[in-house]
Amino acid sequence: MADADMRRLIAAVAPHARRALLVNKSIDATVSQAATFADILNGLSAAIFLIDASCRIVHANSAGHDIVGAGDVLRSVNGQLVARDAQVNQTFRKAFAGHGKIATDAACIALPMIGVDGERYVAHLLPLTAAARSATATAYKSVAALFVRKAAMQIAGSEIIARSFDLTPAELRVMSAVVEIGGVPETATALGIAESTVKTHLHRVFAKTGSSRQADLVKIAAGFSNPPVH
Hints:
By secondary structure, this protein is of the alpha+beta class. It has helices spanning 4-42, 62-70, 86-96, 130-133, 158-165, 169-181, 184-191, 195-209, 214-223, and strands spanning 47-51, 57-60, 74-77, 80-83, 109-114, 120-127, 144-150. The strands form 2 sheets. Strands 2-1-7-6-5 form a 5-stranded antiparallel β-sheet. A two-stranded antiparallel sheet has the order 3-4. Helix 6 (169-181) crosses helix 8, helix 6 packs across helix 9 (214-223) and helix 7 crosses helix 8. The N and C termini lie far apart (63 Å).
């Protein structure tokens, strides 16, 4: 039987014990969320980096570690993500503009990159909203996500897309490049043609597919392709 002094002691300690239990449960939930988050990213074939305002790597999936380990188009210098292409590095810095967060007016920045062996890569720098940043403890400090993959220059199901919309080979190449890279200047550089030529083919693709934006073409391509997993 507890006496009056013991009951007072228990009453004083109980709230702290309950708080400790809640903290432990919260930590377990956060760890579980972070592990699930990491497993999902590791299942993607594209390299994904979560980076802070100084371009330091907060998290990278397996493909991201592989591409940095190769040191071809991207490498890690004291934890900071650095591109082999100086212009890409400059674009990174301009995107953050020293304000501690990526420019909010840039919904997504497409960056074409070329490896030492001539392999073409495309990187998409995407700002993260406050909600996305706080979704997991791992990603809390990150302000942007960088997606990097080899530019296949030919989207999955391209033959079916060409037949479905009666696209010429040139129109299909431009559509594929736009879907892979995401911009007229970048597409022109990747294909080695003039920007005016890209625009001409792109307008024809828009007319034949009934679309009006590059984002619409991405959706069309996604409908004919498989998920980006191993």
